[in-house]
Specification:
Elements: H1 12-18, E1 26-27, E2 36-37, E3 45-50, E4 55-60, E5 66-71, E6 84-87, E7 92-98, E8 103-112, E9 115-119, E10 121-122, H2 132-136, E11 147-149, H3 151-160, E12 166-170, H4 177-185, E13 206-210, E14 215-218, E15 228-232, E16 237-242, E17 247-252, E18 257-261, E19 265-266, E20 275-280, E21 284-287, E22 296-300, E23 307-313, E24 316-321, E25 324-329, E26 333-338, E27 346-352, E28 358-368, E29 373-377, E30 388-393, E31 397-404, E32 407-412, E33 415-420, E34 424-425
Parallel strand pairs: 3-12, 9-11
Antiparallel strand pairs: 1-2, 3-4, 4-5, 6-12, 7-8, 8-9, 8-10, 13-16, 13-19, 14-15, 16-17, 17-18, 20-26, 21-22, 23-24, 24-25, 27-28, 28-31, 28-34, 29-30, 31-32, 32-33
Length: 427
């Protein structure tokens, strides 16, 4: 477990007694946002979110023992947090940006669809920018639907409640002002709250390639108010910040953030081979200590590539250059991560040209989405003027030759025509 530092009035003894120890940490395989979990058993804990009293409680499932309990913030009247019993989803993010709201939060854990448990808000990724209003609003229903909690609570849930953990959101509890008052007394003044430390590496980003032209990049995926920010093209490269079977949060090569349907992406989250390099952006030095007044052991020329072992303190690397070990300034030694993006799957087919001749054409290999029967049409339209020329069952291999709006010109079973992009999947 990570060390947690709290102000005295946060009831240290109680919290340390309630937070259980763990034997090991594990990264789950597949589409799970690559979190290094302290607990991977979804049946070990049960989460309850009390909408009446604005309280979140984590129980040990087998015994009902309370593991942690704290005030929270749930959805406002316009964006209420729905009640029900849910299994936590796969989407997680260590320190993420809300595309729709322009703020950040730590330790996102998906409950269902676009509803997450996460920390109170931050204006930037600087921990000192934690929102005063969000902090003081714990215990009130003023969020956009997500469940906001203290950062150390969000951190514990992030590492100990994996996908599949039961989360009961209830609105049938009796009002309990005494418990509310007791939990409120455990929250220190804003200026006294100490941010939790975290000795785990950030979850790795997963490189992915966009499979289809016209792929929407959305502000979210939970309701009709989410907007399309941009459309991506086949072959575009993105990095996955959150991974799920249905949706992924991505960052484009241009730095845009948004959500993309997983079926429109090609990635292999269990085989990551990023190459990390360090390069001097100007002449700098290896120092004997983390102090520019300490001895300069060796000069690193502009473009020099030292070996970095660790980041012992903000502003400093510890590593080696030209056989000399010491400290280097992060300001002048830049870290670069190169990702191996997957190549688009292709297939080659023979098509008949307008003049009756044939050509061999290579296109993107894809499939008809599972569980449907797709109509292949003569024109890129679902109107009466566009005849259905074939009915294709789910899983039928297709080759996409070109794109017209939301339609793919493709070939399947030797027939060439148009399929709507909603009927196409990568698998």
């Amino acid at each position: 477990m990570k060390k947690r530092l709290f102000a005295g009035i946060l009831c240290l003894c109680l919290l340390l007694g309630l937070f259980p120890g763990v034997a090991s940490a594990t990264v789950l395989s597949g589409m799970n946002s690559k979190v290094d979990y302290d607990n991977t058993d979804p049946n070990l804990y049960t989460i309850e979110i009390d909408l009446v009293n604005q309280i979140i409680t984590v129980y040990r499932s087998a015994t009902g023992e309370i593991i942690l309990q704290s005030l929270c913030t749930t959805g406002n009247e316009e964006n209420p947090t729905g009640s029900g019993t849910f299994k936590l989803g796969q989407l997680k993010e260590r320190f993420g940006y809300f595309v729709a709201y322009g703020q950040y939060a730590q330790y996102w854990t998906q409950v269902v669809r676009g509803i997450y448990i996460h920390s109170v808000m931050y204006d930037t990724t600087d921990l000192s920018s934690m929102s005063r209003s969000a902090y003081r609003n714990l215990g009130k229903n003023v969020s956009h639907g997500c469940v906001r909690v203290l950062p150390h609570i969000a951190q514990w849930i992030f590492y100990n409640c994996p996908p599949g953990t039961t989360c009961n959101i209830v609105r049938n509890k009796a009002a309990d002002p005494a418990l509310i008052s007791a939990l409120k007394a455990q929250i220190p003044d804003y200026s006294d709250y100490v941010q939790p430390t975290d000795d785990k590496a950030d979850p790795p980003l997963v490189p992915a390639t966009v499979l289809f032209d016209g792929t929407p990049l959305r502000t979210g995926f939970s309701n009709s108010r989410d907007e399309t920010l941009a459309t991506l093209s086949a072959g575009d490269h993105v990095l996955l910040l959150q991974l799920g079977d249905e949706w992924c949060k991505v960052r484009t090569s241009g730095g845009e953030l948004g959500y993309v349907k997983t079926a429109y992406l090609l990635c292999d989250p269990d085989n990551l081979t990023p190459v990390v390099t360090y390069e001097a952006t100007r002449k700098t030095y290896v120092y004997a200590d983390m102090d520019t007044d300490s001895e300069r052991l060796v000069t690193i020329p502009e473009g020099g590539q030292p070996t970095v072992y660790e980041n012992p303190k903000k502003g400093w690397w510890y590593g080696e250059y030209d056989g000399v070990v010491g400290y280097m300034r992060t300001k002048y030694v830049e870290k670069t991560t190169a990702y191996a993006y997957p190549q688009l799957p292709t297939s080659t087919v023979t098509v008949t040209n307008a003049d009756g001749t044939t050509s061999t054409v290579t296109g993107t290999a894809a499939y008809v989405a599972q569980g449907i029967v797709a109509n292949m049409r003569a024109l890129p339209s679902s109107g009466a003027e566009s005849a259905v020329i074939a009915e294709l069952s789910g899983g039928t291999p297709i080759t996409i030759l070109s794109t017209t709006g939301s339609w793919y010109y493709c070939q399947a079973n030797g027939i060439t025509g148009y399929l709507h992009n909603s009927c196409v999947s990568a698998q």
